[in-house]
Design a protein that fits this description.
The complex is a heterodimer of chains A (about 110) and B (about 110). Chain A has about 110 residues and is mainly beta. Chain A is built from no helices and 11 strands. In chain A, the strands form 2 sheets. In chain A, strands 2, 4, 5, 6, 9, 10 and 11 form a 7-stranded mixed beta sheet that branches. In chain A, strands 1-3-8-7 form a 4-stranded antiparallel beta sheet, with no helix packed on it. Chain B starts with a strand and ends with a strand. Classes of the chains: A mainly beta (about 110), B mainly beta (about 110). Chains A and B meet through strand 5 and strand 10 of A and strand 4, strand 5, strand 9 and strand 10 of B.
């Protein structure tokens, strides 16, 4: 039981490049979330999903897209990376809205 | 949207000391969680506690939902308790909102 995993762990992009971050969970959770954490700050919600095939915007969705084609996977895409998207990205999952969230180890992204 | 405040922002303790961290929120919530982010960045859920009191070893938490605050108690602190403690709340369908955190340093 790996819990929540994220790939890659670290990535460097040039401005304008695109990439996809993968989050996978093996707990059969319905809800999945993508957050970003900037230095010295708490986490901010980018997008979330309440089940396979569904997605919704969070607090800071601009510049990101997501997809939940399979229940166990939640993908975060950056179509045209900007330096302001330099951050640590965390994925989380939970079995219900009002339940414990389990976090992945994070992906550190640097956009030059 | 809902606002979350945490105090103190920074806390330095000697190993063995006790501490209380506070989380205030501006509206009613149906979900409140405490997390510990260790110095390596890993986020660990400590408590799911929208109301009431829970204990887990040296840690305990109390949420008084009617007064819109939650407290995290750490007793007999250890150096491994160092890191940032976050409170996060869900406001009945709104975004899951994190507070700014309390940075704890436990000195040997």
């Amino acid at each position: 039981n790996a819990g929540v995993t994220q790939t890659p762990k670290f990535r460097v992009l040039k401005t304008g490049q695109s990439m996809t971050l993968l989050c996978a969970q093996d707990m059969n959770h319905e809800y999945m979330y993508w957050y970003r954490q900037d230095p010295g700050m708490g986490l901010r919600l980018i997008h979330y999903s309440v089940g396979e095939g569904t997605t919704a915007k969070g607090e800071v969705p601009d510049g990101y897209n997501v997809s939940r084609l399979k229940k166990q996977n939640f993908l975060l895409g950056l179509e045209s990376a900007a330096p302001s998207q330099t951050s640590v990205y965390f994925c989380a999952s939970t079995k219900a809205r009002a339940a414990t969230q389990y976090f992945g180890p994070g992906t550190r992204l640097l956009v030059l | 949207g809902i606002q979350v405040e945490q105090s103190p922002p920074d806390l330095i303790l000697q190993e063995g000391a006790n501490s209380t961290l506070r989380c205030n929120f501006s509206d009613s919530v149906n979900n409140l969680q405490w997390f510990h982010q260790n110095p390596w960045g890993q986020l660990i859920n400590l408590f799911y506690i929208p109301s009431g009191t829970k204990q887990n070893g040296r840690l305990s938490a109390t949420t008084v939902a009617t007064e819109r605050y939650s407290l995290l108690y750490i007793s007999s602190s250890q150096t491994t308790d160092s890191g940032v403690y976050f409170c996060a709340v869900d406001n009945y369908g709104q975004n899951f909102v994190f507070g700014p955190g309390t940075r704890l340093s436990v000195l040997p």
